[in-house]
Amino acid sequence: PLKRAVINSGKYARTHYEIDQKYESPFKVSTLNCRLETGRTHQIRVHLAAIGHPVLGDELYGGRTSFNIENRLALHAQMLTFLHPKTKNLMNFESPLPAELTSMKDTFR
Predict the structure, then answer these.
(1) So what's the pLDDT on residue 7?
(2) From CA 25, how far away is CA 89, in angstroms rounded?
């Protein structure tokens, strides 16, 4: 797979994040709410890895893989919002947290 990186000569990308919850067990992990100003490939994954906090399960960018999540990253697009290209209406789409991620969060409590 092609790996992306944060470099001075790269394309502009900005991610805002807020810590939702911090957990200490079975290891230090946090859940975040992220808002993207741009939509670059792997943007959240690259930005979090660049500040030393990669996404859980993200082998490509250095995330912890020893926790039991079934062939996926601990990353979920709960809400997507964008302007419709023709009508310019604001489009909102929401998706609840999948069962496997809800179950994983429950083990951290």
Answers:
(1) 81
(2) 44
Read off the tokens for 35: 């808002």
- Residue 37 DSSP one-character state: S
Other beta carbons within 10 angstroms of residue 58's beta carbon come to 20
Tens-place pLDDT, residues 63-105: 776 666 667 899 999 999 999 999 999 999 999 999 989 988 8
Q: What is the DSSP string of the chain?
A: -PPP---TTS----EEEEEEEEE-SSS-EEEEEEEESS--TTHHHHHHHHTT-PPTT-TTTT----S--SSS-S----EEEEE-TTT--EEEEE-PPPHHHHHHHHHH-
Full set of structural domains in the chain with CATH: 15-108 (3.30.2350.10)
Better-scored residue on pLDDT, 14 or 67? 14
- DSSP annotation of 16: E
